[in-house]
Amino acid sequence: MSMFMVVAVCAAFMGSCSALNNGLGLTPQMGWNSWNHFHCNINEELIKQTADAMVSTGLLQAGYEYLNLDDCWALSRDNKTNVIQPDPKSFPSGFKALADYVHGKGLKFGVYSDAGTKTCAGRPASLGYEEIDAQTYASWGVDYLKYDNCNAGKTKPEVRYPVMRDALNKTGRPIFFSMCEWGVDNPATWAPNVGNSWRTTGDINDSWGSMIGKADANAPLYTYAGPGGWNDPDMLENNGRYQRQLGEHDREGRCQRTLVHIRRTRWLERPGHAGGW
């Protein structure tokens, strides 16, 4: 897309274009994330099966292009180089090989880290290691980084998140930067210059009230969203416990998708159930 076209699209949506200039996120991201169903129970075979399912079920063709691992993939850092190490029991082939498999299906590969000393699950995080982690992600072929906000001390996210933005930019590889600081410092007002999306709320849960609450919280923020940067009210909830009990999967799912479009937000799915969709 030419720069003229980018400017024209930005003007049509929001009058000016202030988003992070890495060429990504011209439309809200769509894909799959491992956390809400699998939590820390992730491994290489599950991710490969998910990649296969995203293709065979038509999700990729429909635009769901990102396959994102959440927390618990990292085990340690190399004692000499400080390079982050995936858990070798869960990911014996390593992340370069796993990313290659995902790319071979026509999908994009995403990982998770945290702007603190530990991730939310207590795994190694990226505070103080931003440049080495960004270079490692790029060497693996990572296309997407979800960056959480646990164990960060008193330093404001406005200080910590731009450090990773700059580190990602230095790699020369376009990596979608998904900021997950939970809306604590009203990121819609400052994050368009930092990330491609920014969490505007706390975590969603599998209930109608949570979904509507997230939609209401995002209602006044639509003017901050546009090509290159999007509000993020957390993942879509599909085939969850609440929906199965009430038999309302179809109605509630359609409602949430409608609200996502109205509020100009990202569109990442949680898994439907273990072992498939």
Report what the structure shows:
The protein has 277 residues and is α/β, with parallel strands linked by helices. The chain contains 9 helices and 10 strands. The strands form 2 sheets. The chain has an 8-stranded parallel β-sheet with strand order 9-8-7-6-5-2-1-10. A two-stranded antiparallel sheet has the order 3-4. α5 links the parallel β5 and β6. The longest helix has 14 residues, at 157-170. It is globular and about 45 Å long. The two termini are 34 Å apart.
Mean pLDDT: 83
Query: What's the helix-strand series?
Result: HEHHEEEHEHEHEEHEHHE
Task: Give the strand order, joined by hyphens, for the main sheet.
Answer: 9-8-7-6-5-2-1-10
Count up the helices: 9
Q: Would you count the extended β strands for me? A: 10
Estimate what percentage of residues fall within beta strands.
5-15%
Cα shape: globular
Q: State the helicity in percent bands.
A: 25-40%
The stretches of 5 or more residues where confidence is low (pLDDT under 50) are 1-19, 240-249, 269-277
Tell me about the largest β-sheet: 8 strands, parallel
Rg (C-alpha, Å): 18 Å
Which class do the helix and strand fractions yield?
alpha/beta
Kindly, what is the distance between the CA atoms of the first and last residues, rounded to a whole number of angstroms? 34 Å
